[in-house]
Amino acid sequence: MANKHIIVVGGGVMGACVTYYLSLHNNIRVTVIEKTCIACNSSGKAGGFLAYNWSDDTPLGDLSRKSFKLHEELATELDGENKYGYRKVNTYSILYQKESSLRKESNNKKQEKDILTPWIDTSGIRHMEQLGNTSDTAQVHPRLFTETLFETAKQKDNVTLQIGFGVSHVIIDDNEQLKGVELNNGEIIQGDAVVICMGPWSGQLPILKVPIDGQRAHSIVFKPKTSIPPQMLFTTILDGTQTHHPEDGTIYMCGATDNSKLPSSADQIQVESKAIEVLERLRDTLAPELYDNKNEELIAKQACYLPISEDGTAFVGIYPKYNKQVLLAAGHSCWGILQAPATGLMITELLVNGKISCVDKDAVEALDPTDRCC
Ligand SMILES: Cc1cc2nc3c(=O)[nH]c(=O)nc-3n(C[C@H](O)[C@H](O)[C@H](O)COP(=O)(O)OP(=O)(O)OC[C@H]3O[C@@H](n4cnc5c(N)ncnc54)[C@H](O)[C@@H]3O)c2cc1C
């Protein structure tokens, strides 16, 4: 269809990647509606970790592999290294317990120290394993990545961003045809198709039944005293009776999710000081030399909501009603930054060609909203 008008709802990483790939088609016009601001939820507060083959034992193996490669391509095209910190990383898992009675020197200790010094207190490492290297794990700064994609798309004449009012309704006529969307301020925007990229809020529009909710996670970002190598740690820290699983980038550390209810919008998200204190304590245990309280180097204490679907798999494809004019790109849980480029390409292929060819059949079927909504 010539000059199709697509409405993309949500200014997170999914909205950014859908918009970016759609913007490459001159016969498509895109309007992005973001309620709060670009990357205001998890797309601005994630770790930005990318892994090539970590979904291989699931139907989404091809989606992750394809998306990892698209990230590489995008970084080359968009100068990702400078614009959004794209870099290859070494990735480790460690089991950590700082308890001298259990301390056991091993022959590997020196090697561990060589790898992790100067930023980790290696005396508490009980087990360590390399999970990935610079050929199959990487990282982006998620907010800068999301902003760069929107900025690049916006330079095209066919893309408009509208920020400040959210979509309150998808408008469907008596013949089950999409007319457009209505915003919180009453404005109506007409369109030929709408793509729902509302993250954890994707299930909250009247008439659409999308079983997605949110789970809150806290994180801190701090500036290290010394420069440290490009490394990602998945840690299990045995701390008294509790086990914590922070995920630690060079200056980013996040904790486990909690059950706090999803607020009405991203600007209502509450940060719990106790959750931040836990992360700060774990940081001081794991990397006591890394942070100097006197220098006020804590950059962010933050929380955001992961988009979680009821069956644990994201929705990418056509909503099973309304003449194939409503599409979903939501619910990617803890892999949304990795999987966003392939998701954006899948949605674009559907809207442009009517079918998906960029990922294999297993991924298409697993992500298909048919039979999983309503
Ligand atoms: C702590 C943490 C660490 C993570 N680390 C990683 C990682 O290392 N690697 C990885 O691949 N993934 C990671 N993730 C997962 C990733 O962040 C998410 O899967 C991804 O950001 C989801 O993006 P999204 O665009 O679907 O949703 P969001 O980022 O939530 O964006 C949705 C947008 O929709 C807007 N919106 C909501 N309602 C409306 C409305 N009615 N109208 C208009 N706009 C609306 C919101 O304001 C928001 O901006 C992490 C997540 C968390 C929480």
Explain what this protein looks like in three dimensions.
The protein is α+β, with helices and mostly antiparallel strands. The protein has two domains: 4-82 and 140-211 and 310-367, FAD/NAD(P)-binding domain, CATH 3.50.50.60; 90-133 and 214-309, D-Amino Acid Oxidase, Chain A, domain 2, CATH 3.30.9. It is built from nine helices and 20 strands. Strands 5, 6, 13, 14, 15, 16, 17 and 18 form an eight-stranded mixed sheet that branches. A six-stranded mixed sheet has the order 8-2-1-12-20-19. A three-stranded antiparallel sheet has the order 3-7-4, covered by helices on one side. A hairpin with a 3-residue loop joins strand 16 (247-248) and strand 17. Helix 1 (13-23) runs parallel beside helix 6 (142-154), helix 1 (13-23) packs parallel to helix 8 (336-353) and helix 3 packs across helix 8. The radius of gyration is 21 Å and the shape is globular. It starts with a strand and ends in a 7-residue tail after the last helix. The mean pLDDT is 90. The site of flavin-adenine dinucleotide has 41 residues, from helix 1, strand 2, helix 2, strand 13 and strand 18. This is FAD dependent oxidoreductase domain-containing protein. InterPro entries: FAD-dep_OxRdtase, FAD/NAD-bd_sf.
